[in-house]
Design goal:
The chain contains ten helices and ten strands. It has 388 residues and is α+β, with helices and mostly antiparallel strands. Helix 5 packs parallel to helix 7 and helix 7 packs antiparallel against helix 9. The longest helix is centred in the middle third of the chain and has 38 residues. The mean pLDDT is 94. The structure holds flavin-adenine dinucleotide.
Length: 388
């Protein structure tokens, strides 16, 4: 068993660290992406620099011009990237356009209409699954798509949809067979946001500064040719995508956030003197450093192992649940301790800590609330357990 990262991955990690230190961390003072997007005049030059050092379209298959990196490599990159708060929390496009993985399941004709324009950065797609009465339990969704000749009639309401206001298309999950639902009754349809009957009803501003949308679909005609994959395949396609999000989007991101929060805690504790001695001399502060380092280390091993097993083709469903729970909770504790050590300064907007605090609080709910994942994990473990 080898716990060291491969040599080429260490080199790549260094490249990303240098990029973040040189290009992104200096931006933090002048720009904090509280909204969903980086302004074009900041994003475009950064994208050109990222391309120049080979950090471009990392998860896109090579046949579409991407780097097709494995998940472990992308986790290592994400860990480095999310040491900075200069990148948006959602829709981070510094290393290439945001491509929803489900789009790689487009057929040849659909690729021309949806995938390639997204890859060229010309079109944007949002993902619409959650509903007012179906968040943690998407199988309970009410949005219906009823086949009528060469199209579907779509009716329903989706809530908390990130980026819907600027999206050209929505990737909508809808019930096509009410009997089967999660077992083959939910279908993924690409809906043109300009279609008659698509209503951007309202926004929901959140504590992270973003404002996802509520969308109402009223008798929207969606061509049958806009079904991604097969009818009834939508639920399993979305779950696969969400699983990768738990490992890289949540797990690896939290490693980066916690890693820098810990570095800041150690820097400040050596510099700040109270009652004649640096904070770093106090056992109460030392314990916060030790606990944070220990928890971060355990979480990192878990993320790397899970990503590695995923790349070997293993079923990592349970490990991915563990990663999301462990990393989001760990990052919450480490950021909280770092704020505590920084005292009043830690609460100010001069430092990234308060923003991380709000972010890591939110991701214990989105894309699988902690309690739901614990529940699913326990169900799977108990089902697989053979009584002794
Ligand atoms: C900022 C933001 C952006 C989002 N972006 C998107 C997006 O782009 N697309 C999209 O489709 N969705 C999006 N969502 C929706 C998000 O994924 C849901 O909010 C999340 O899945 C939780 O659903 P809910 O809010 O309906 O909570 P509910 O399902 O009502 O659950 C509420 C709470 O109940 C508890 N709970 C629920 N079930 C159980 C259980 N079985 N056992 C124990 N406890 C349980 C949990 O603590 C949970 O937090 C976004 C949400 C936010 C806030």
């Amino acid at each position: 068993m080898d716990f060291d990262l491969p040599e080429e991955l260490k080199i790549l990690k260094d490249t990303v660290r240098r990029f973040v230190d040189k290009e992104l961390i200096p931006l933090e003072r002048e720009y904090r992406p509280e909204g969903e997007e980086m302004p074009e005049h900041i994003l475009k030059p950064l994208q050109e620099k990222a391309k120049a050092v080979g950090l471009w379209m990392l998860d896109v298959p090579q046949e579409y011009g991407g780097a097709e990196l494995d998940l472990l490599t992308r986790c290592v990159i994400s860990e480095e990237l999310f040491r900075t708060v200069a990148v948006p929390f959602r829709n981070n496009e510094v290393f290439g356009p945001e491509v929803r993985a489900v789009l790689f399941h487009c057929n040849e004709e659909q690729k021309e209409r949806f995938l390639y324009p997204v890859l060229r950065g010309e079109k944007k797609v949002c993902f619409a699954q959650t509903e007012p009465d179906a968040g943690s339990d998407p199988a309970g969704m009410r949005t219906r798509a009823i086949r009528d000749g060469d199209h579907y009639l779509l009716n329903g309401t989706k809530r908390f949809i990130t980026g819907a206001g600027r999206a050209d298309y929505a990737q909508v999950m809808a019930v096509t067979d009410a009997e089967k639902r999660a077992r083959g009754g939910i279908t993924c349809l690409i809906v043109d946001m300009k279609s008659p009957g698509v209503i951007l009803d309202r926004q929901w501003p959140t504590m992270m500064g973003d404002a996802p949308w509520q969308i109402v679909f009223e008798n929207v005609k969606v061509p049958a040719a806009n079904v991604i994959g097969k009818e009834g395949e939508g639920f399993s396609l979305a779950q696969k995508w969400l699983q990768e999000g738990r490992i890289r989007g949540h797990g690896a991101r939290c490693l980066g956030i916690a890693g820098r929060a810990l570095d800041m805690m150690m820097d400040y504790s050596q510099y700040r003197v109270t009652f004649g001695r640096p904070l770093a001399d106090r056992q109460a502060v030392q314990f916060m450093v030790a606990d944070s380092a220990m928890e971060l280390h355990a979480a990192r091993l878990m993320v790397y192992e899970c990503a590695w097993r995923h790349d070997q083709g293993e079923d990592v469903r349970n490990l991915a649940y563990m990663v999301k729970i462990m990393c989001t909770e760990m990052a919450g504790r480490v950021v909280d301790r770092s704020i505590q050590v920084h005292g009043g300064v830690g609460l100010t907007k001069d430092l990234p800590l308060e923003w991380w605090y709000r972010q890591v609080r939110s991701i214990r709910i989105t894309e699988g609330a902690t309690e739901v994942l614990r529940w699913r994990l326990a169900q799977n473990l108990i089902k697989a357990h053979k009584p002794q």
